[in-house]
Write the structure tokens for this entry.
Amino acid sequence: MLRENAGFGQRNAILADALSATVAWTEEMRKIIAVEDLNFTVKKKAMTQLSPRERACSPGRSTRHTGSCSRQSASAPASN
């Protein structure tokens, strides 16, 4: 298991071992591996420009963090 305080080399070694085991398993089971080159650089840069509330309410955040993200303020009366 990967610890939070693991060093860069240790993380890479653990990930490499997991990838090797996955490849071996897929070869044994005759399964296909799909590979994606995900790059979140643009999204991360955009997130740094948001306010803390906007970051907390952004799509993809866990629902436990979005309790106060409704479009209507809790103090504003509901319109009928």
Remarks:
- Residues 72-76 have pLDDT under 50 and may be disordered.
- Helices lie at 8-29, 41-48, 52-56.
- The longest helix spans residues 8-29.
- The radius of gyration is 21 Å.
